[in-house]
Amino acid sequence: MKKSKSLKRRGDSFLKDALILFAITLIAGGLLALVYNITKGPIEDAKDKVEAESYRAVLPEGNTFEADTALEQKRKEFKAEGTEIQKVLAAKDKEGNTCGYVFLVVAEEGYGGDIQFSMGVNTEGTAEGVEIIQMNETAGLGAKSTEDEFKNQFKGVSGNVTVVKGEPQGENEISAISGATITSDAITLAVNEVLRFISEIS
Question: Vertex 147, ends 142 and 152: CA angle to 5°?
Answer without folding.
Answer: 115
